[in-house]
Amino acid sequence: MEKHIGCLVMPGDVLDCIKPVEENKKVILGPGLIEDGNFIKISKPGILKFRQPGVYWIDCHQKRYVPAKNDSVIGIITQKPGDIFRVDIGGSELASLSYLSFEGATKRNRPDVKIGDIVYAKLLVANKDMEPELVCIDSHGRSSGMGVIRKGGFLFHCHINLARKLLNPECVVLKQLGRRFKFEIAVGINGRVWVKANNEIQTIAMANAVMASELMNNVQIETMCKKLSKVSSGIDED
Amino acid sequence: MAAKKSGSHLSKNVLQMKFMQRSVLRLEKEQNEEDKQKVIDDEHWVLDLPDYQIKESKYLKDQSYVICEQLQFGRQSFLGCNPEIEKLMQAHKLEQELKVSDEKEKQNSVSDQDMAQRYSSLMGIIAKKFSKKRQRNDEANDDESGEPRSKSFMKPSDD
Fold this sequence. Notes:
Chain A has helices spanning 160-167, 173-180, 200-212, 218-237; strands at residues 8-9, 14-15, 27-29, 33-36, 39-42, 46-51, 55-59, 72-79, 84-88, 95-98, 118-125, 133-135, 147-149, 154-157, 183-188, 192-197. By secondary structure, chain A is of the alpha+beta class. Chain A binds chain B through residues 18-20, 26-31, 33-35, 40, 49, 51, 55, 57, 68-72, 74, 120, 126, 144-145, 164, 167-169, 174, 177-179, 181-189, 196-197, and chain B through 57-82, 84-85, 88.
């Protein structure tokens, strides 16, 4: 198994040595790996990754979002037919979002959501053959950061890799920017990022910094952030 | 049941009467059902296949990147831009730290199984100690009496 980890794999490759560490424990197969009889087959070109205790997945470059359960995504409300909202989350199909799955929403007290609003929501149902379903509350009925995002800001689309990179605990982009600038960000796993800072110029600067960081390593990111803060302090003085 | 018995004895002429039509229908229905049952019993086909067993998969499929890469929560705020979100971030951070420390503790501390094993062996040692003492005493007594002590209840003498 070790020989495959960290290597390039192609769709159709067969992995026959993925086995649970202990008998009663299950192996987690992430995106890009499918079970076919006794073998595991690869369905995406990319790099095979492994994490203890038994998690395998393929890291690949991707623009099209494939809905997966429990993903937090940014969606755009596109239709309002009856009791549900249809939300564009970048997948092959529009997702549905019930008006009751907002914090504090009842049949009488409908949430104030309009067409064109952006929502930060979690995927409750994500199935190959079914319409994905979103919710804006957690299991306790609280919003916990989800819901309609208002107050301006700027939404841009990026590769799904970048969204994952931003949220990776080892990546320093957001930490470095956050140490120097006052801003707010919402990253959806579906490759949509919403940023908001004090004013438009800073918002654009943040968005550009985030987009530029896609192919940088941590050291390069740090130098970029330093440069950016120098420049922006120059702007403030002028 | 009584109706069925009486129905079977009713003559053709009686059954043809208008007010008996309902019971005629019922009788016919019963007859039909019986016939059907017979046919099914005779012609009930069974596929000659070994029992189909649902194998439990060893894999949890279609997991998201969030689980695989242990991604953070997507909404973040810095330097007090949105205090609500910053509170959430703090809570998430605490949770993460708790998880990590829990795992560390699990690694460092003795597992339940080890503990049970250790105790069972310890109990054995202690039991051995006690048994040895008693055995020793028993042996000494045995030497004195010269015959094996019976384990039955001995009535104390009335003094």
